[in-house]
Amino acid sequence: MTISSLTRRSVVTTAAAALFTTGSGLLVPARAKGLAPTPTMRGGSNNYRPGAPIVARIGGGGFWMTGTVRRAEDGAPLEGQRIQIWAHTTEGHERDWHSHGATLTDANGEFRLEMPQIVPAFGQAHGHLAYDGDAFKTVFLRPVMGSSRDTSLRADFVLQPV
Amino acid sequence: MPRPRAVLIWIAVATALLVPFGFAVSSPLLQWRDPVYIGSGIAGVMAMGLLLMQPLLVGGYLPGFKGISGRRLHRGVGALLVGLVIIHVAGLWMTSPPDVIDALLFMSPTPFSIWGVIAMWAVFAAALIGALRHRMGQRLRLWRVLHTSFVSIIAIGTALHVLQIDGTMEPISKALLTALVLGVLMRVIFDRRIWVHFPLVRRK
């Protein structure tokens, strides 16, 4: 048998918990088809260089960084978004200016930039990408290659309007 | 100890240290790294080799370095280990400051960096109480349990650090060296029966 006891303590804690969950924004209405924005990855912004120029290719090329940029909620492809790309490659360290370059997305929201082969550095073969425009919230990604012999790497952005 | 056996032990130890080191310094990754990054990595590989020397020396397993001479060299190698860890971290800092700051703040995306930082603090702690041993007075059993605890954190932290890294060390020789470091440490812990003297503080 259970005894239902309505003590002062239980009333106060229940009221406080209810107030906290409703007031803090933890309860949000379910959004059926909402595409969630991509969160920034840990370490994604390391060695980022604000204003790296748009280039046809980073260095000698041979490796492809690809991906898409879409809008949160409806998933619409975003054209003309500037994505900065950098990595430790066969031609330089992550911190080097010449290891950085930017490109723009096409009408389908896709981007594709040729760069030197990424090689393992700081324990992992990984790349860095940044969206840092004005229309959407800034996102930094740090995708890791499945194998250090891969010759391409993909990273997709879902951006949230500011 | 008969001479051939002593020679064989030293050849085995030298092989265990030099083979992984040889692979690391001939890694293809080095051609795409600047001298500071290369030096930093080599300091790390050497430090890991010293982790094998330390239990061998203090356990008296090395011919020519039994008893007091082994323990004296153990202290010198410990100081060298501290220096190599500092060179390793400083070199990485110069190569990519934000990555090292992330690691030191335990905010790194890579778990092996966090294990490396844990092992680094354990190296400093083990060396510090090593230097303070004479101040522990009668409580040498407590001292030994403390030192061994930090050393165990070093060995386990280093194992988790190196095994997950895609770096200059060759995977098989790296795994074997890791197994040796853990194995010899366990051997000396069992041989010296570190745990049997509880309660830790000597009774009056």
UniProtKB/TrEMBL annotation, chain A:
PROSITE patterns tied to this protein: TAT
TM regions (residue ranges): none
MF terms (GO), sorted A to Z: iron ion binding; oxidoreductase activity, acting on single donors with incorporation of molecular oxygen, incorporation of two atoms of oxygen
Signal sequence bounds: none
Superkingdom classification of source: Bacteria
Name of the molecule in the record: Twin-arginine translocation pathway signal
UniProtKB/TrEMBL annotation, chain B:
The entry's keywords: Membrane, Transmembrane, Transmembrane helix
Protein name: Ferric reductase
Top-rank lineage group of the source organism: Bacteria
Keyword Membrane: yes
Segments passing through the bilayer: 40-64, 76-94, 114-133, 145-165, 171-190
